[in-house]
Amino acid sequence: MDLKHSDAFVFFGATGDLAYKKIFPSLQAMVKRGHLNVPVIGVARSAKNLGELRARARDSLEKHGGLDPAAFDNLSRLLRYVRGDNGDPATYQALREELGGAERPAFYLAIPPTSFETVVEQLGKSGCARGARVILEKPFGRDLASALDLNRILLGSFEEKAIFRIDHYLGKRPVERMVFFRFTNPFLEAIWDRNHVESIQITMAESFGVQGRGGFYDETGAIRDVIQNHLFQVLCNLAMEPPVRTDSESIRDEKVKILKAIPSLDEKNVVRGQFQGYREERGVAPESKVETFAALRLEVNSWRWQGVPFFIRAGKCLPVTCTEILVRIREPPPVYQGFQLKQNYFRFRISPETVLAIGTNVLAQGETVCESNEMVALRQPGPGEMDAYERVLGDAMAGDATLFARQDYVEEAWRIVDPALKADTPVFEYEPQTWGPKEVERVTPPGGWHTPLGA
Fold first, then answer.
1. Could you tell me the pTM of the whole model?
2. Which of 44, 129, 284, 422 has the smallest count of CB within 10 Å of its CB?
């Protein structure tokens, strides 16, 4: 881990949608907690001057973060502005002047991936990249070949240890709680293997559609948008071996080992769907074959998990908004005849609240009936948590890479999904507020898909 803290924060795309909805609220929160006290330099074209950028920041906070007058005043004092085009060398000359004596700036690219190459190369040519870190938004390419090209471009100006590939999902505290629960409770580790676990399923459901982002989504789809990155990270957290140390490289080593143990996705193990009405969304092609729903079946060919199927399901316009994991334990031997026993399970809900629960069998009604009982070990509301972007940006500035994707991880993740993406599998239509197309039965866990509570 590089423990030298960044002495300036520069974000490209300062007037964009991501900055407006997420970055300004996170920066204010960092200032309020005392985690940010270095120059904050926005780079964009549309704001005419610093005054306009400050006004946009205030409007952002009033609508998305909740304006804190004292914290906003401090952020305003830190805020700087460089107006210019990302491809113009003059922009980077002005940026160098604004950086002043900063020796370890962090450059955050809150811009479309198509602009990454231009900005990274200009940072290198201008000398701004010396001693700096670069923070990138997903997706890291759209397949393995483009991911390799992007890495070549990044390594032309930055060392791997200075590259922070954001997966903001890892910044969510409930994801960390799930890993902590796994590795600090020995009773769980004793049954966390192929001898006891029948199947693992991960569901990321969103009850809403593309929310006006049809142009972006039609270039991406559910597999590229959330499965290949967010949900693969969740899978790795569930399946990885305990790291020998808790430093970032030891943890990331174990995650890469899991991806290496997963064979490339066979097209017969994926079902894609598209909700009715998607093609009428603004920016979506009239004959679009992009999936808004996908269900996958994967295998992890390791000593611990050989033979245990992993199922991932994600989609838009589903009955509920939540992310939930269900780990089904194998059925017990039929010692008690005449009872309809249910399988034990562990249920982890990551959002919108945190829930850790265990499904058990108990006797009820005069010891003649068996009931399935769920014991809730933890239930915590979502509000009040540190925002994921606040956490990952703070970690990047501190040099802690634990929550960021390493290049070998990115390459393995693309290797897994590439064949299925290129196979041009059919896309089946489904009605909004249902659990995807009926064809999903082809990719279904033993005992069926778990329906998250609230659906």
1. 0.90
2. 422
